[in-house]
Specification:
elongated; 4-stranded antiparallel beta sheet; 9 helices; Alpha-Beta Plaits; Aminopeptidase; alpha+beta
Length: 353
């Protein structure tokens, strides 16, 4: 099965559901077996991960990708090829990147590689990666360098923002709706707390790759009837912070700036890579060898990937994947040529790793 045929087949798996995502893992396991590569399917809380390793040596390269996708319309799971693009759910994010990794290790399985190459395919990245990649990291499936073939338009993404999710509870005092001066409106207090958080200097600090952290007021709840001053309001925040900032300093700054209570829902690390890293430099050299007329671009991501679980362990990680656009949208697509280029770059990089 050629790369593009394999991608077409993977798109037909409606892997926004756990059952179909797991079925995609089983399919790939059998596909690799038919090409002489044997691995293991690991199960955690009902979610499947696939692991296989080729080569030998002291160093290990991890190739990590997810086969789960966000939900889509029925027609999005029928791949369409048009003008060197494949259109469909998961074409860019990120089944094409997975195909490039799969095909690269098939091509290299009989090579005398001086390093171990570990392929990891998972099924829950879109909902946080807790059951798969995080589990694999905790179980010791680690390496010296990690590539996640998320779609990056063939740029080398070396940084990604971290994630803070908190609830802010603002307390007020109830009163009759006709006499609001006798109460303290918790929703108004919540609004003032929101403005205070947005104005924090630490959240407006930028870096080489980011203008500043982002603050998304994801939801707000408060009040229940028209004729009563609300005495409690809850705001939910999704903060994506510049990765060289200490997230606990952000929490401390928020605590000191608001009149309310903070409940921390989660704090997840960012990725803070440097282009001077020797593996990143080798990857850029492979990119230039395969596409000689390209300018290597180093970029950063606003969203997170499963790579953050390796970054938390101090393992360098990049996102590096094919060209495409509109992932999670109705017209998601990947450029077919770039999938083939990605495969060639991975083969070249693995040989020099």
């Amino acid at each position: 099965m050629k790369s593009i045929d394999l991608l077409k087949k993977l798109i037909t798996f409606r892997s926004s559901s756990l059952e179909q995502a797991n079925e995609a893992i089983v399919f790939i396991s059998k596909y690799l077996e038919s090409n002489g590569i044997y691995g293991d399917i690991l199960e955690n809380n009902g979610y499947y991960s696939y692991i296989t390793t080729i080569g030998k040596g002291k160093k290990t390269l991890v190739l990590n990708g997810h086969l789960d996708v966000v939900s889509g319309k029925d027609e999005q799971f029928i791949p369409i090829v048009k003008n060197d693009r494949m259109i469909g759910r998961g074409t860019a994010d990120m089944k094409s990147g997975c195909v490039a990794m799969i095909q690269s290790i098939i091509r290299l399985k009989d090579e005398n590689l001086e390093s171990k190459i570990m392929l990891q395919l998972v099924t829950d990245e879109e909902i946080g990666g807790m059951n798969c990649t995080k589990y694999l990291v905790e179980e010791g499936y680690l390496g010296d360098f990690v590539i996640c073939t998320e779609p990056t338009n063939l740029s080398i993404s070396i940084q990604a923002k971290g994630i803070i999710r908190i609830d802010v509870i603002s307390k007020g005092k109830s009163a009759h709706g006709s006499r609001p001066w006798e109460g303290e409106n918790a929703i108004i207090k919540a609004y003032e707390n929101y403005k205070a958080i947005k104005a924090l200097e630490i959240l407006n600090k930028g870096s080489e790759y980011y203008e500043k952290s982002s603050v998304n007021l994801a939801f707000i709840n408060g009040g229940d009837i028209y004729n009563r001053v609300p005495d409690c309001s809850v705001m939910g925040f999704d903060i994506r912070y510049v990765p060289d900032i200490n997230p606990h300093e952000i929490i401390e700054n928020i605590t000191n700036s608001i009149d309310g209570e903070i409940i921390i829902k989660s704090i997840e690390p960012g990725v803070y890579g440097l282009k001077e890293n020797k593996y990143i430099q080798k990857l850029s050299e492979s990119l230039k060898r395969i596409i000689p007329d390209t300018d290597v671009k180093f970029t950063a991501q606003h969203g997170g990937s499963d790579g953050r679980y390796y970054a938390e362990k101090g393992i360098p990680i990049v996102e590096f994947g094919p060209k495409g656009d509109h992932w999670h949208g109705d017209d998601e697509y990947v450029e077919i040529k770039s999938v083939k280029q990605l495969e060639e770059i991975l083969v070249d990089f693995i040989k020099t790793f």
